[in-house]
Structure formats: structure tokens, C-alpha cells
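Protocol step 6 of 9: fold each sequence in the batch and record its C-alpha cells directly after the sequence line. For illustration, a two-sequence batch is reproduced in full.

Sequence one:
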Amino acid sequence: MFGFSRPAAKTVSPEEARSLAESGAIRLVDVREAGEWAQGRIAGAIHAPLSRLRDLAGTLPSDKPVVFYCLSGARSGQAVALAKALGLPHDTHMAGGISAWRAHGFPLTR
């Protein structure tokens, strides 16, 4: 609106995210809340709930790209927008979130 646009978030598929994470090329960051995190998460993911992301932004990895994920992709898109607003280079999230990860039969940990 009014000539302003928010840069679109880059999106990777669950397959791409899994491959990149397993090779060590990226770090996965789960932006779901604590109760969701406790129910199951992707092994090796960092927990940074969207509600606290502004405060935790300085703790996100800077040595490699970050890929945010949530339940379905909405909050991870918001995490990308917040990261960009804070001047962070993190611009990617996983399409479909952990729901898509599960649908592909990929493992979760508790």
C-alpha cells in the first residue's frame, strides 16, 4: 500500500530444510511457543518463540544462515519480517512448518 512493500520471505521446502540442516549448511529455528516445542521438534533446532524473538535476536547464530519454522508457516514468515526489521540477515522460512515436516514422515524429537 502507498508504494511500500515488505520484502518477501525466501521459502525452502521441508525436504530442502532437512538436507541443508543435516549437512550443517543452515540452523533451524523453531518460533513456536513452549508448549508446542515440548510436544515435538526437529532435532538440533534452536527454540526462539516468536513472542520473545525480539529479545532473543542477539542469540541467533551468525555463522550460518537461519531457517525459521513454526506450525504451518505463518509465524515463521512473521519471524523473517521481524528479523529484517531488526537488521538481521535471516530471510528464510520453511514452507508448511512442522506440519509439512510431519506430513513428509520426517522425524521429530522431544
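Sequence two, same batch, same settings:
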Amino acid sequence: MIYMLTLGLIALLTIGIPVGFGLGAAALYSSILGSSSPIFATILSQKMLFGMQNFLLVAIPLFILAAKLMNTAGITNKLFGFANTLVGFMPGGLGHANIVGSLIFAGMSGAAVADAAGLGQIELKAMKQAGYDDDFSVAITAASSTIGPIFPPSIPMVVFAFVSGASVGRLFLGGVVPAFLMCATMMLMVHYYAKKRNYPREPFPTLKIAAKSFVEAFLPLLTPIVLLGGIWSGVFTPTEAAAVAAVYALVLGVLIYRELSLKDVARVFIETARESAIIGIVVATSSFYGWILMKSGFTIYIGEWIVALTTDPIYILMLINVFLLIVGCFLDSTVAILIITPILMPVILKVGIDPTHFGVVMVLNLMIGLLTPPFGIVLFVMQQVSGISFDRIVKATAPFYIPLGTVLVMITFIPEIVTWLPNLLMGVSR
């Protein structure tokens, strides 16, 4: 059964079948032909429906909606302007602003693609006008977009929490320090290139310019503070926080900045519904796929095989890192989390690895996968936004694997980087 399940999915994806339909078809095919007992259509529908019956999943369309409203309302322009005021005076200033802007926008979107497609257009245009070469501009824009799913809120971490049962609040807080480390390491890379290629820097901002930039960006900047503060204090759940983010973005766009018309709002809601439906199909069919996977005994086999190799948590994480980096080259992060997490979680719990630590490590691995060929989705987004060839984008982005890989190694070997803040604010998990 497992061979049918795996090879069937690979074959369907190879010929261009959408992931959601591929997962369902492969699972159904293997369950009919590879099982000694019949599996009825009612079970298929029940398993798919059960996979969708989780209040936590409501956060995904709400975060998508919030990000789209921010982009459409022109709020990303204000955020990038503020980021440029903060760090634009450094060598390669707009490169640094690109990274800081992604960190700020991450507090509202939770998705790398939203960052690359929305904020990326603004960043590329500004860097081109300032004289930066296209390859560097595209590379730093693509690399910095990976901060979005690490810094809270994060859609991939919501998905991980749904599958693993880990605390969303702890996962959100666990991503804060790694996100800042990603910023720091990428800014070091920008500094190196700026010195080597003599990239320009922005004039040091006057007090008037700094104050104006801060005032324009002040209300959007409150978003991550409100969300994290509300979750940490227990005022609302992570799902309710997503609703707060969406309503707040709507109020900013329609009532405060008056950039959103009713037509714009309607279009954003339709786009959000379309993207959420795609994710919903993937979640539903992956639930059935995962059930068949567990029914085949594959999850138990993998767990026993890994534990037979080693029971050292660090060695196990190293093996998983290699595996996830390969998987990230071929599968979307949501699909990978939905399929792989149920396989690996029993091993993680058995050897005593903190689920929060593992969740952040897993998400960062898969975010690096967004930048790796042949199916790195951020690379395709940047190709569409910039008009540069795919091969050229891959080559330009490759050096930024160094800072991202450095942070991955750090959080793998030093779990406290991830767990320190959740333990400080929410207590030690048991």
C-alpha cells in the first residue's frame, strides 16, 4: 500500500495534477487496491470532513484576508518607508530596509508569498530606482520573505499546531528570536555585498522625516503588539487574534487611510475565499491521505527505524533537517507539514524534543525550501514580479542560503533560542 500511496502521489504531481486532488486520488487508489478490507466512500467523506472540523483552521483565511487588505490599502508602502527611515542610512540601505520591512510586515501577514508578492513589488521598484542591480534586489527580496512564516503570526505554524496538537501561542512566541536572528544574519550579508559592490545608502533622516515616517506607520505597527499581547494575556485565542487582525486591517484601509473602496474590499474577499478554498481542499484530502498512511503502518515503521539509528535528540533533528530540506524542494510547506508531521511527531515526543522547538525547526526548513528549485514557490513569485528568468533568480538567491542555514543550525543545536521566550511568558511546557 505504501508504494502505491507514495508513487501514485509523485506520478500525479509530476503530470501537473493539483496537490489537493493528487493527495485524494493517490489515497483513494491505494486504499482500494492496496487494502485487504474495503474502504467505502462514506469513510473517505468522513475523514475529509473530520480534517476540516477544527476551530484553529479558521485562522488561516483570516490571516490571508488581513495580509491582502494591508497590501491593497497601500499600508505596505508606509511600512517600507518606515523601515527605510530606520536603516536606510547604512551601507546598502535599501537592502537593509527590505529585510526590516519584511520583519514588520510579517507581524501582519504570516505568509512568505504575501510578503514576496505584495511588499516585494514596492521593494524591487525602490531598489531599481536607487541603482541596485536586479539580481541582488530579487535575491534579498526573496530571502527576506521567509521571515514572514517564522515571526508571529504564522500560517505554517497554525497548520503545524493543528496537526501536532502543539500550542499555537508557544509556537508564535518561539519564532520571535529566530526571526530576529534571520534579520541579523541577512543584514550582515547585505553589508558584505554593499561594501564589495559599493551600493548606495540613504541620507541620514532628519528628526522631522523620522517623526513623519513613524506617525504614518504607527497604527500598522501596533498589529503584532496587539496580536501577541492578546494571545499572551489570554484576552483572545490565536484564531480570534486572526479575526482581530482582519478587522483591524479593514478599519485601517477603509476608515483611517481611506484607500479601500467597496469594490476593492469585495475583490479582496473573493481572492481570499479562492485561496482559502485551495488550502481547504489540501487540508481535507491530506487528512484522508494521512489516515491511509497511518493505517498502512508506515508511521510506526519510520519511527522505529529512526529510533533504531539513534535516540540522541540532536542527531535525530539533524537527520530530520536533511530530510525536510529535500522535501521542501518538491512540496509546498502546508502540504509537507500536513503529511510529514504525523509521521515524525511520535519520534519527537519519544526522544523528548520540545514540540515548540521542533515546530519552529520544521517551518524554517520548509521556508528554505521556498527558495530552492525545482518547485520553490517564492522563486516563481519573484519571476512573475520581476520579469527575470528563473535560472537567474536561483543563482542570485543561492548565497542567502548561508545566513538562513546558519540560523537553522543555531536553533537546531541550541533549543533555548526557540523555547526561551515561550517559557518566560507562558511557563515551561510539560
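Proceed to step 7 once all outputs are recorded. Observation for sequence two: The mean pLDDT is 85.
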